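Sequence only, no structure available. Ideas?
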Amino acid sequence: MLLQPIHPSWKKIPGGMFRRLPVFRLRLCLLSVTVLLTVSYLTWKPCRLPEKDHNRRATKTHLLILSSWRSGSSFLGQLFNQNPEVFYLLEPTRAVWFTMPKMNPYQLHPPLRDLVRSIFSCNMSAFLPYMPRAQFISELFGWHESRALCSPPACGAQQRSDIIDRPKCNRSCPKNPFEKMEEACRSYSHVVVKEVRFLDLEVLYPLLSDPSLNLKIIHLVRDPRAILSSRQYFLELETDDAIISRGHSSMTNSTPVMQVICKGQVQIYHTASQNPPPFLKDRYRLIRFEDFVKDPLANIKSLYEYVGLNMSSNLESWVHNITHGTIPKKKSFMHFTGNSKEIAQHWRQKLNFQKVKEVQKLCRQEMHMFGYQLIRSPAELKDMSLDLTLHKKKNLVC
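Reply:
I predicted one. Tokens follow.
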């Protein structure tokens, strides 16, 4: 049996009978609704998130450090983090990966990109889908690596011009409200994000072409043999490796992981260097880790100039000391404190020749593209006088 529509001017009463509303009451109701709709229409404004306002020009400088796991990117990130003009976050998209671990890395690219866009716009509410119960800044991965989150207005543990003191930050700042992160971000001229989970550059085109962002990219690459060696002793990559392997449709092990990592770095560079779109002009710079550590101070000064940062004499002294082993490790917060040139070659003492041959085969294209010399014998592996960088790869700026 079909139900017949009830005319709006009828009102149901007990017993199933209907009576017509008085005409003046009906007209009064219709007039009230009309007035409300008119007022709503005249006062309504579309909700526009800051990061999607394409008519607003950028007032900050945004830097995305692209690299892969165990490539020296944390070291490079810290050289920016210590600048008092920088708001820095270490791998914030980890929250996305660990919320959606069943997806492959390419499926995760869009939400990673969108989160990075929001961070650059200082819209930290974008973390809520991935950290719905977050109350404190300390619930964000790597929070204590950020000098900005350990100094005002996020926390009063130290001054903005101080070099970060992790133990002091851990003691003083873990209960600071999550909302303070957004306030802190808005108070800096530069927002820097270090990421290892992007395997393609084109997914970032919406950010690079957005006039509300002044985005620049530093692409840091490293000898894949050094990456493999470091990964063997770093046991916190299980979830990441499982996601990477899923994108390769294989079981979790070093072979597909290294293949995907190497392919991703090649893809990023190839996209940036082969007929790049106009909006990429002056926004991309490639640097090899092995070149960087040969003269860290000169190289970081060059990168500072690239993004419009100044270096104080105090910061310059710290960079020199941290990369020449003159700061006792017990007083340093970074595990890579020491002679940076020697640290860059440690892998040659740890990785056996069989592993070297395997990774050279897996990453042959990356090694050729970035200028890494093949090792053909155990003797060459241990010969530290042999420079494995075939030629100085110029720091490409598109």
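Confidence is low (pLDDT under 50) at residues 1-21, 35-54.
Hope that gets you unstuck.
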